[in-house]
Specification:
Pfam families: CxC2. The chain has 271 residues and is of the alpha/beta class. 32% of the residues lie in helices and 13% in strands. Among the domains are: 61 residues, no CATH class; 39 residues, no CATH class.
Length: 271
């Protein structure tokens, strides 16, 4: 006869510290459930706008009170990749901020949300923006590739990129693959589930593109950490040219951390 999986079975074999949680588990679950909704949903928004109701929540913010769509957009001027949990009368529907009417403006001295009077492109473009919390199908208004890079966004391709990656997701994957040997396939599968855990197959698969972009990112990071962007070959003439190996600064290096006279003295003593 099969036994049903109960909470007690899940907690079998846990440490004494975990057992201290048992009397508090019901209270903890109550608060977890309470954090997924709010009693003020459906009430008039505090902004006082005509017909505006509390219908949007944000679980990416540490603390965000329910608000109308306009207030949600205003509160996320500098956090455009936060998901909007929009109450549709039956459940909370996860939506990108562009569905609320926001067009993400990138560029103009990195002040997102402020339009640039010298912009060449005036029409927004539909993009897939890949962030650590999921894959956003959003509307973006940008001007040049360097504007995206200044806003910490990496293009998927050089010519007409319709998928872009935030620096945050590239940095996060690099750290995870170094510490836990996580594969790109598994990482992107988790990102797709963060977007839609119920129907992840409906989320765009950016595996192939991310595989190439992260290799470029890691190569660039190695070049940066190796000091080549600061012309390190000038200070380490004995090292191979364009080497991306991080120098051992504790080792004696003629003309860098040891005077030539000292190196000559050591050489004479060794003869």
């Amino acid at each position: 006869m099969r036994r049903g999986l109960t909470l007690e079975l899940c907690l079998q074999g846990v440490s004494k510290i975990m057992k201290e949680f048992r009397p508090k588990l019901a209270t903890i679950l109550d608060h977890i459930l309470a954090s997924e909704s709010n009693a003020t949903i459906g009430e008039a928004c505090c902004c006082g706008g005509m017909g505006t109701l509390h219908e949007c929540m944000c679980n990416d913010c540490q603390h965000h009170e329910p608000s109308c769509k306009a207030c949600f957009i205003a509160a996320h001027l500098h956090n455009p990749w936060h998901w909007a949990e929009v109450w549709n009368g039956s459940f909370f529907d996860r939506q990108d901020i562009s569905k609320l009417g926001r067009i993400v403006i990138i560029g103009h001295n990195r002040h997102q949300g402020v339009d640039c009077p010298y912009a060449i492109v005036k029409e927004p473009v539909n993009f897939h923006m890949v962030h650590i919390n999921g894959i956003h199908k959003t509307k973006v208004l940008f001007y040049q590739m360097k504007a995206c890079l200044c806003s910490r966004i990496f293009p998927g391709t050089v010519s007409e990129p319709h998928t872009r990656f935030t620096f945050a997701i590239l940095q996060d994957f690099h750290l995870q693959t170094l510490t836990s040997k996580k594969l790109v396939y598994n990482y992107i599968s988790a990102i797709r589930r963060k977007t839609n855990n119920a129907f992840s197959s409906e989320v765009p698969d950016v595996y192939s593109l991310f595989l190439q972009v992260q290799q470029i990112w890691i190569a660039l990071m190695m070049y940066k950490w190796g000091g080549q962007v600061h012309n390190m070959d000038k200070y380490f003439p004995s090292h191979p040219t364009d080497s991306v190996v991080v120098p051992r600064f504790s080792c004696p290096e003629r003309g860098f951390n040891v005077m030539d006279t000292i190196m000559e003295t050591i050489s004479n003593k060794n003869q």
